[in-house]
Each structure stands twice: as structure tokens, then as C-alpha cells.
Amino acid sequence: VDVQELDAKLAYIQVTHVVPFFSKEELDQRLNEFEQNHDVDTFMYETPFTKSGSARGTVEEQWKRKTVIKTSYSFPYVLKRIPVKSREIIELSPIEVAIDEMQTKVSELEEVILPPADVKKLQLRLQGSVAVTVNAGPLAYAQAFLDPKVVNNFSTDRVEDLKDVFRDFIGVCHTALQLNSRMISSDQKEYHNVLKENYQRMCQALSDLLEEPFQPLDDIGNNSTTQRNSMALFNAISGASNHSSTA
């Protein structure tokens, strides 16, 4: 909003959507949905922007502003509206936006593979994660920031952070595919095979781009050794008490 363009004779109300905001340490203590939505006094909302002035741009141009607000009292409260007592603004550069978005994908996948798993939610997350499209999704971030032709344009630390998130992403996608293979009915096998093929192509594309192996296990859902390895990882994740945080 450009305040200079607003009519001084009018009062304006800007409405946005906020989500509870926790540090990694706080999230480790809030283990379930109830605890993550009660006694909350810190919230966050995001605003996409570009340096050219438009809200949206290419992956290489896309910045994001995180506004963290703290309220005078915690929600839920006897009043529906509580004054904001402090505000902090965090600006993420394009490569930091990529890291943040990929961390969110990893966190969402980690949540849907926790028991009791919902196969519909699982498949929605998988479908949005393993589709191989250079111009959108995970591969767009890899192409924009990890291609050997451009990687030297960015901070080494940020590049390594993004690579680490991609490694986590490939691992959790594999675990989600393993879980899906055990939960689907017989009429969904073809759909599962399409997801598996997309995942394998994504691994190959990342291997070629990053010049390091992102090797999937070929027999997802078929090989008993593969199933045992994946189940061990699934149990490790499901036994963990914390969730990923992008703070």
C-alpha cells in the first residue's frame, strides 16, 4: 500500500491473515495442535514483493517480507481484538525465499507422514512436491540458485543451506512415497507409479544440476530391503517430538 496515494479524508482498514509464530525452542515444547494454537501471543504474516515495485516476479526477483507481531495478551482471550505491542520485520532475499519455501515443503511432508496418516493429504503433498517442472516448484529454485553457471552469484552459506534443504526434501519425499505404496488400494497403483516416476526424474534432474548424486531407490514399494530402510526412517521421524520451523 502506497500511503501517499490514499485519500486523507477516508479511514482505511487493511485485513490480512496471520499464523502463530514460534522459535525452534518453543516449537519443541508445543507438541500438539492444541498447544500450538492456545496461549499464543506472537504471530506472523508474509508479504511478497520485488525491488521493481510489483508484488510478484520471477524466482530470481522474488523477495518476501515477514512481519512478526506480538500482542499485549495471549489468544484465546476474552476480547476478540488485542492491541499489538511490538512488531519486527524480516526481509528475505530471493535465495532465502527459496530456502524458506523448501523448508515449508519439508515440514508439510514430515507432518503428513506422521501416524495416523491421511492418504488423501499425503497424496496431495506428494503431487505438489514431485512434479518435474523446471519453471515451477522445487526445480525452479534449484535452476535459479544452484546451477553452476549462477551459483557463484550467491552467498556460499546460503547455497549450502539450500542444498541441505534439498537433501532433506528428497529424503522425506522418498519416505512419503514408501508410505503411500503401503496405503493405496489396488486401483491406485498406476497413480502411485506416476508419482514414483516423477520423483525419480526429479532426482536425476537434481543430480545433473548440482553435480552430486541424488539417487532414489528404484524399487519404491516393491523391494523388501527398500521397505525396511524406509520404515526405519519413517519410525525415526514419527518418533521425533519436534517439527520443522522456518524461523
From TrEMBL:
Pfam hit, one: DHR-2_Lobe_C
UniProt keywords, alphabetically: Guanine-nucleotide releasing factor
GO molecular function, one term: guanyl-nucleotide exchange factor activity
Family matches, as Gene3D superfamilies: 1.20.58.740
Transmembrane segment boundaries: none
GO biological process: small GTPase-mediated signal transduction
Domain DOCKER, chain residue ranges per copy: 1-215
Domain of life, per lineage: Eukaryota
Family, similarity comment: Belongs to the DOCK family.
PANTHER family assigned: DEDICATOR OF CYTOKINESIS DOCK, ZIZIMIN, ISOFORM K
Name of protein: DOCKER domain-containing protein
Biological source species: Glossina palpalis gambiensis
Lineage, highest ranks first: Eukaryota, Metazoa, Ecdysozoa, Arthropoda, Hexapoda
